[in-house]
Amino acid sequence: MMFDPLWLVFSIPGLLLGIYAQIRLSAAYGKYSQVGIESGLTGAEAAREILDQSGLKDVPVEEVEGRLTDHYDPAKRALFLSSANYQGRSLAAVGVAAHETGHALQQQAAYGPMKLRMAIVPVTQFASQAYSLVFLGSIFMLWARHFTLFSHLIWIAVGLFAVVTLFQIVTLPVEFDASRRAKEQLSRLGIVRDRESGAVREVLGAAALTYVAGMVSAVLNLLYLVSIARNRNS
Ligand SMILES: [Zn+2]
Fold first, then answer.
1. Of 27, 84, 113, 122, which sits with the fewest C-beta atoms within 10 Å of its C-beta?
2. Residue 156 exposed, middle or buried by CB count within 10 Å (0-12, 13-18, 19+)
């Protein structure tokens, strides 16, 4: 198979946006993990406060290893914070911790996009693994000059990758909404002062951009797959 310059056209924008998003996140997180929060709470204490004040006393806040491994597990109904954010008394630590409580609040409110995202997790895991195999298979068929089989396989690859892309698209409203809920709770409970809210917005905005980059990459990759599938069919 010859190198396809069209592939660059479809992959470079997502790649550049992804790199830009990572740089911005590292910069914002690095900067505001050095800035202490006036209320003096750790990320864990801030998360506990938000959960307790929202009627979620039964949702535990636990510490996990790794950098930015923070997440909310809707199946366990538990919040996990990386050590730096669990113990940190910085604007970045409290911002990230509050964002994760935003996901707990979404589950409590039966927020539609989150329910949809949870529902498609298993099929997405299957689709992303099957996609790699089917796509490799299609390239092999092209190399072996089995063009009919290639054509079938590449369209199956398109269908599987469409599922992965849908998941990336549904992730966006879920992530933006979690940050919105986080900022609302932080100011309502007085955990973050007005003059500190810009910093929290910067950290959460940078984190959200990484999800936008993932979505853009997926959509462009899907368009590229469709374009090669259509070309080989005509
Ligand atoms: Zn999130």
1. 122
2. middle
